[in-house]
């Protein structure tokens, strides 16, 4: 059967990189990229009609409410998008494309905080509304995989960074500020909160490569950590970004942001992923940060032009 690949959330950070990578490498399978403006997943009828018309063979479900910070303010909307939207998509696939292979990027925020590396067997117990919605998404997808037989691969993805990312992520927010300071007109200072939290960070190209490897070689009904298995203090992330700029930039601790991190360490163990697929991260933290900063420089230049 000819492949028909669908990417939801195609205008988002991960979706854009995934669509570009699929289209660059795969000249055989057409890739359909859905944005919310094309198919709003909260609208069941719209989703059913669109899936019936396309009957995809492979689905990367990248649409979602992805911001942990926003989720405190938008709890119901976060649940609606991540849970109800996913239910609509899976219902429609079951009805119109039951043989499709589906990859759902989940989140490391489904885990309960732990002071050592997290494996897929560790305790679940999200402590923010985003994590709750991603756990509900994962649970509903597992049920559909087990009871209804849809071929679904689940991930618990740790932080990824890269071009096109919003400022809701610390590294991207630091890079955005540095780019604005370099352009002039803003105080040459970055306001920060606690920088002792440690995070497992991948370049988005490695994340996308892991998703494609799992689509090819992952086991249906299984959940995989997508991560580097290395943790970096956020202080290191900031220091390395500052070192990429030739401007003198101050760092100011903002008392309002100085709450202890809910997850002092968010580090994954990627043994299941590497064992199943042979995937390995290829992009160093320095290269990932340099690309992120260069992208922000280009974005800020465009804004002021
Ligand atoms: N970025 C990370 O570090 C990270 C880490 C772990 C897991 N993830 C997961 O990876 C996935 C992609 O994240 P991302 O960073 O690419 O997020 P993103 O940049 O916010 O993109 C998400 C996309 O989903 C679309 N969307 C939202 N609601 C929708 C709806 N009702 N119907 C259809 N489309 C809708 C959005 O469209 P609009 O722009 O039009 O609203 C947006 O383009 C999410 O499931 C996220 O939870 C991300």
Task: Provide a descriptive summary of the structure in words.
It is a single chain. The chain is α/β, with parallel strands linked by helices. It has 2 domains: 5-161 and 202-226, NAD(P)-binding Rossmann-like Domain (Rossmann fold), CATH 3.40.50; 170-198 and 231-265 and 283-304, UDP-galactose 4-epimerase, domain 1 (Alpha-Beta Complex), CATH 3.90.25.10. 44% of the residues lie in helices and 16% in strands. The termini are far apart. The model has no long low-confidence stretch (mean pLDDT 95). NADP nicotinamide-adenine-dinucleotide phosphate binds at residues 9, 11-15, 35-36, 40-42, 62-64, 66, 81, 85, 105, 107, 134, 157, 159-160.
């Amino acid at each position: 059967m000819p492949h028909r690949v669908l990417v939801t959330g195609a205008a988002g950070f991960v979706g854009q990189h995934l669509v570009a990578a699929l289209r660059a490498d795969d000249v055989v399978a057409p890739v359909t990229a859905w944005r919310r403006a094309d198919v709003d997943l909260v609208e069941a009828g719209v989703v059913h009609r669109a899936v019936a018309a396309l009957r995809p063979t492979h689905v990367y479900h990248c649409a979602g409410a992805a911001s942990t910070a926003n989720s405190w303010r938008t709890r119901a909307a976060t649940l609606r998008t991540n849970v109800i939207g996913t239910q609509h998509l899976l219902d429609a696939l079951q009805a119109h494309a039951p043989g499709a292979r589906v990859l759902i990027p989940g989140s490391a925020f489904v885990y309960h905080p732990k002071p050592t590396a997290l494996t897929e067997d560790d305790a679940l117990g999200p402590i923010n509304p985003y994590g709750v919605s991603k756990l509900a998404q994962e649970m509903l997808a597992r049920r559909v995989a087990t009871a209804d037989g849809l071929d679904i691969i689940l991930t618990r993805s740790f932080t990824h960074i890269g071009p096109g990312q919003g400022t809701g992520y610390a590294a991207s927010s630091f890079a955005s500020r540095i780019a604005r300071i370099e352009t002039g007109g803003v105080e040459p200072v970055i306001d920060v909160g606690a920088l002792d939290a440690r995070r497992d960070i991948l370049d988005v190209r490695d994340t996308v490569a892991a998703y494609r490897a799992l689509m090819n070689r992952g086991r249906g009904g299984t959940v995989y950590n997508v991560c580097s298995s290395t943790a970096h203090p956020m202080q290191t992330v900031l220091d390395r970004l500052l070192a990429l700029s030739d401007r003198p930039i101050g760092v100011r601790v903002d008392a309002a942001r100085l709450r202890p991190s809910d997850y002092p360490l968010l580090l994954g163990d990627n043994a299941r992923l590497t064992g199943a697929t042979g995937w390995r991260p290829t992009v160093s933290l320095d290269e990932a940060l340099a690309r992120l900063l260069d992208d922000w420089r280009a974005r800020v230049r465009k804004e002021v032009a």
